[in-house]
Design goal:
By secondary structure, the protein is of the alpha/beta class. It has 2 domains: 120 residues, 3-Layer(aba) Sandwich (Rossmann fold); 95 residues, LytTr DNA-binding domain (OB fold (Dihydrolipoamide Acetyltransferase, E2P), Beta Barrel), CATH 2.40.50. 28% of the residues lie in helices and 32% in strands. It is built from 7 helices and 15 strands. A 5-stranded parallel β-sheet has the order 2-1-3-4-5, with helices on both faces. It has a 5-stranded antiparallel β-sheet with strand order 10-9-8-12-11. The chain has a 3-stranded antiparallel β-sheet with strand order 13-14-15, with no helix packed on it. Helix 2 runs parallel beside helix 3. The longest helix is centred in the middle third of the chain and has 16 residues. The protein is elongated.
Length: 247
């Protein structure tokens, strides 16, 4: 197997100790070539332009131009580096992946998670051959959600149901669940309607999890799921749900 090329890497963090810790971790990574460090967002952009790194390890919370703004600015650069965020806070994760981050690491950075993130950059680089436009899907295929001290990848195809909990959505996958800070309307727009259907203003389920539809004799319909859960179907969504059974 061909050895991966060394990733020319730039580190941007306003905390000298944060930079030092990453330098120590990267020193053990044979496929990384540290080309420079930056202490704020404006400097990071100037160094990206001058050094043209393959990878930017970027703190989110920095004075002036923060990490999210840096990534947005990089979106206008023709050959911009892959971005891995490194942050002490998990609540920026959704914004980070919305601007195309490869991964999101929480401080203090675990060496194994850093290795996993670097491997992901290599994988994306190897798969960078242009794809046919027809192959591109308009629907989201994965979510990255904060969970305890990690940011976890959740494949959309594995989600069985989504339930609203105030300002969050709970994604259910078997016996596990994860909280995501998005509105249910936004999730409904991003999920493939061929696989997901909204039952209620606060519930979306994967279509193949519905075992049967039933009514209580008073005009109220319910969807019974294969796992035994049952949800009332809202009037707004009833006609669409009934089409599952061609009724």
């Amino acid at each position: 197997m061909r050895e991966p090329h060394a990733l020319r890497t730039l580190v941007a963090d306003d905390e000298p100790l944060g930079i030092e810790r990453l330098q120590i971790l990267l020193a053990d990574m044979k496929d990384v070539d540290l080309v420079g460090t930056a202490s704020d967002g404006e400097q990071a952009l100037r160094m990206v332009e001058a050094l043209k790194p393959d990878l930017l390890l970027l703190d989110v919370s920095m004075p002036g131009l923060d990490g999210i703004a840096v990534a947005r600015a990089l979106g206008h650069v023709e050959q911009h580096p892959a971005v891995i965020y490194v942050s002490a806070f998990d609540h920026f994760a959704v914004s980070a992946f919305d601007v195309g981050a490869v991964d999101y690491l929480l401080k203090p950075v675990d060496p194994a998670r850093l290795r996993q993130a670097l491997d992901r950059v290599h994988d994306r680089s190897e798969a960078a051959a242009p794809a046919e436009p027809a192959d591109a899907s308009p629907w989201i295929e994965e979510f990255w959600v904060p969970h305890r001290s990690e940011v976890v990848r959740v494949a959309a195809k594995d989600i069985e149901r989504i339930e609203a909990e105030r300002d969050y959505m709970r994604l259910h996958i078997g016996a596990r669940s994860f909280l995501l800070h998005q509105t249910i309307g936004e999730l409904e727009r991003r999920l493939d309607p061929a696989h997901f259907i909204r039952l209620h203003r606060s519930v979306i389920v994967r279509r193949d999890c519905i075992a049967k539809l039933r009514h209580d004799g008073c005009g109220v319909w319910h969807a019974d799921l294969a796992d035994g859960k049952s949800f009332r179907i809202g009037r707004t969504y009833l006609a669409n749900v009934k089409r599952l059974a061609d009724r």
